[in-house]
């Protein structure tokens, strides 16, 4: 039975937790280490401030208290000021200084990211996935880790009896972020094993707490039913240690969330680039200095009968150790510039087409059912897989029925509805991936992906690269897209160009049922984030001219590697040899506009279906362009500054010498939204008739 808030307090008092002397000594040694690091960094600003950094000065007590609770089977998501947490789990100053100076052997990122931004996967240490700098954004991936643990425990897949806990560390100012609320909502809704540590120093760069919030984090979470909470004095190591011990014990036992609010002073600068004397007066600095954790712990050590001489010796040793570590780091090698391209993506195991695309006795299937069957196969064969999003669970199974029957077949623990939280849906997959769960998620319409873009950019896309390949994020994000039949301005948009400007994610766009099934399988097995764009106008082949999107269903082993285009329609050899042919490069609905438009030019038009937009099959494009010497890039998006225009420009640059005509690009009118009225929709979008005119112009050039 869960403990109430009152029971937590009573149990803490009854246990009267005593902090062992060796823990007090260890904490003081590490406090002195952190203090001397901060002093040294300031004294050597010319070197140490080349790259911006923050220190933990003033926060050492609560950070060490939290670090001492973490076990090697736990997970953590620190924030940028948490260097004392890193020292507390066993990282050495030398290792942190390598990151400070952007050195080659920086153990987290190889010189790619800021000081105090860890990516740690090391035996004997808690796991710390890549941490971004986006304030408060770690709350969703951290909660996703707890959600993944909760899922794996529920399926009997976790193994052992360790009861892992996730520590999510946040500054109090970040709690005003909406994404933090999304994370906490899911933590209480699903009873997730996570400790939210809120370090409150009453500053957010130059803004004070009074300017930023009407209440502190402890008061704020009172509205989250099921969130236990406690306050500790974050400047007092003894009180912090007792509180964090109790918090971790509560979560290990009860498998539910707790928030610990720790009041701390801020004794250092916000960062090396925003110095305290620029915006803080003497009165404020003096008030914060009163609560310096170091003299408080020193006093506790004296009360515990530590001798003055021993403390002085410890202080001298810490200072000498930090200086020696700095000298080592200063002389360490810088990264080799030739490695800059490494780790954009983790290698995928799916490199060739397998299975039967058209097995004997196969029946035809529409795209939406091919997708359903692909996910069904995945859930059946991979117990670590789960599927969630808005309205995909329960009895509905998705607004397009793309998840019909899955919740009934696999249970609400594996296929479930989420709140209207696109940021959580996207960002939680990073945490899921870190703990070994494999999430398939859905955004209900492409027009609604924007609240999730922050997580997609800051957390998912950069993780593999900035962690030097330690933390690629396996994430399959399904997104119904495109316009047909009067869907209107908020259900019809195309977003691929925006997505393709996000480096570090893969973008897939199938045009038929067979490819849908094969590409979903490949996307699931890909260790990188994959966004699967699924044109809702092709789901059932109800739009005139899209009947061929319905194909014979491939077998259950069928898989199509990402990054491989497919010739959907060939031109005849005579037309090619006579220079009377052209190439249409397209994807999604464009395939069917091109098919219909090409009927007037029988045998003269080749259609290359890209299938994957990133990574793009550039070799197939060049080869096809060289066959025809005339090319049209066709898209459903508004054309100006689009992916299609970019691709047309690339072809012009790299294939200029073999072209017999300018590379053409064609798409929708350059408008901010698609109108509701079907005639206005048709006027904005490409149609077979409009595409026919473009092809005729190209062939006659």
TrEMBL record:
CDD domains from the UniProt entry: TPP_E1_PDC_ADC_BCADC (cd02000), TPP_PYR_E1-PDHc-beta_like (cd07036)
Top-rank taxon, per record: Bacteria
EC number of this enzyme: 1.2.4.4
SUPFAM superfamilies xrefs: Thiamin diphosphate-binding fold (THDP-binding) (SSF52518), TK C-terminal domain-like (SSF52922)
Positions of the Transketolase-like pyrimidine-binding domain: 365-541
Top enzyme category: oxidoreductase
Any one GO molecular-function label of the UniProt entry: branched-chain 2-oxo acid dehydrogenase activity
GO BP terms: branched-chain amino acid catabolic process; response to nutrient
Keyword line: Oxidoreductase, Thiamine pyrophosphate
Bilayer-spanning residue ranges: none
Cofactor(s) of this protein: thiamine diphosphate
Ranges in a coiled coil: none
Function: E1 component of the 2-oxoglutarate dehydrogenase (OGDH) complex which catalyzes the decarboxylation of 2-oxoglutarate, the first step in the conversion of 2-oxoglutarate to succinyl-CoA and CO(2).
PANTHER family according to UniProt: 2-OXOISOVALERATE DEHYDROGENASE SUBUNIT BETA, MITOCHONDRIAL (PTHR42980:SF1), 2-OXOISOVALERATE DEHYDROGENASE SUBUNIT BETA-RELATED (PTHR42980)
Protein name per its UniProtKB record: 3-methyl-2-oxobutanoate dehydrogenase (2-methylpropanoyl-transferring)
